[in-house]
Amino acid sequence: MSRPVDPITLGVIWGALQSIAVEIGTAVHKTAYSEQAREGQDFSVAVFDREGRMVAQGPYSPGHMGAMSFAVRHALAAHPVDTLRPGDGILLNDPLLGSGHLPDFFITQPVFHDGALIGFVVNIVHHTDVGGQRPGSQGVEGIFDYFQEGLRIPPTKVWHEYRTDDGVIGIIAANTRTPEKVLGDLRAQRSALRVGELRLQELVARYGRETVFAATDEILARTEASVRAAIREIPDGVYPFEDVLDDWGPGTDPLRVAVTVTVAGDTVTVDYDGSSPQTPSGLNSYINYTRSYSYAAVKCLTDPSGPMNEGALRPVEVKAPEGSFLNPRPPAGGGPRAVICYRVFEAVVGALAPALPDRVSAAASHMANPTFGGWDRQNRRRFVAYELVLSGTGARATKDGCEAMAWAFNAANIPVEAQESRHPLVIERFELIRDSGGAGTFRGGCGVRRDMRFLADDGMLTNLSDRQRVAPWGLFGGQPGRRGCTVIDPGPGAVRGRTGEEVVHSKASRSFAYGDVISFQQAGAGGYGDPLARDPGLVLEDVLDDYVSVRAARDQYGVVIAGKGFDLRVDARATERLRARLDAARVSTASAPAGVRPRSTRARAAPTLGTRSQRVASQARPPAKRRRS
What we know:
The longest helix is centred in the first third of the chain and has 29 residues, at 179-207. The protein is built from 13 helices and 22 strands. Among the domains are: 7-145 and 152-222, no CATH class; 361-529, no CATH class; 531-591, no CATH class. The relative contact order is 0.11. With 629 residues, the protein is an alpha+beta fold. It has a seven-stranded antiparallel sheet with strand order 2-1-5-4-3-6-7, sandwiched between helices. Strands 14-15-20-17-18 form a five-stranded antiparallel sheet, with helices on one face.
């Protein structure tokens, strides 16, 4: 039994562990070669104790962090602690062992002080390309196993006492289209872990091994107790929810995401029984990835401000049927599994909406995560470009959704300048899409449009997005957001004599030509609450900010905007009359025959978060919060 640590020392050690994680992440951020790591922050870092338990993590991707504990566990199973030496580093990207897909390279490095193991520093970077069928290694179409997706690395000791195994590095370099980026990012990972190693050694030198060990035990115990206490505040019950991904490629059926969240005392069980079977494509999510975003959703709804470490994971069990697309049997493909993370996260949020109406958000827009390859004429070389288009977040119980930011994970839109300086492309439009956010008492975030003109030959696009067939749902009367689309050569006017735009499927792999413009137009996010209850002043602000048109203000919110140009104002009397008519009209249609009834925002008995995202529990007012007696 560890001896108690006084509160001040405990607080200092906890702050130091967090700081170490952030410093490792900052080192990756500042030294990485790839755009997704240096600009998009598609990486994660954590500090583990001597027993291989995650204690502190950086503010990055939950998808990486929830899986990282499993990756470390498998790394240490292959390379037991008694075989490790200072400066060793274990690399893996095996989807079954924690990575989730092949582009994610995890490195686990032990940390020693005075000859004794004191912990581990770990990081993961999403690498630009690891070979396989498509540039970027994230193809959906034509993938029937992960052998087509690139180089697979089981837990391998690539660094021996600070010396690199050049043979393994040579194999990696020979199996990527972008060796300069991949090897550069590996060096960034390795250097960042050296920073973390030194800082952890300094912490132990200052306070002593026993004190730091006792502090980590206390941190994990307190985190677990805090999450369990928060779970006990949720009414016991069984909470089902269903949503879908649009499909798993051109001409395919939707993928059903069925979840049942069971709250019992201080535990939560998340069960995906009933979800669609695994697909003969790249679109599958190995169980560690499914667990990761389920953990993240539960944490956000219970103890969002507390530490996220192994203690926070203990009260939560996540299950999915083996052979489902959320727990596929190997060697199923899984390269583009990032597109699934929003749906897993939102399924848990949707399930718990009846129990926690004040904490949940409506469905977000969906990111686009395409990759491109081709021949760069100017620099006379092949290139692979990675893109992130992050759009609006769902409306909440007291606030509108946010614009152009990540949802369910921490990343950023890659700056225009970074893409244009490194690749043969010009970004011609990067803007919010008016009237795309779902109407509600609080409005969903707007969709984002990003148009990219490619000055490349032999172009190859691997598209990766969603919410182009099934719109993001609203909550408690909030309306769904507008659906998204991907278009080549959008709008009037021909490029090189073309006669019009061409819609590209959200998960298609296809070619494009020199000068083509590819337009990624993301869905808007769902609204929260009755649109007719929205403050007319907020509607006017949205019109002035060009989030909402004057027509949509009238049709969706019942707000009449008078005036012209910048001299706009709310016509209060006309608004009151219009809202009364709209409210009366929807009440009068409540008895209309099934099949012709419009979506009502009148209260019903209880919200049933729907069998499909189009049938969201959105139709009821939030229930009063219940507490266990």
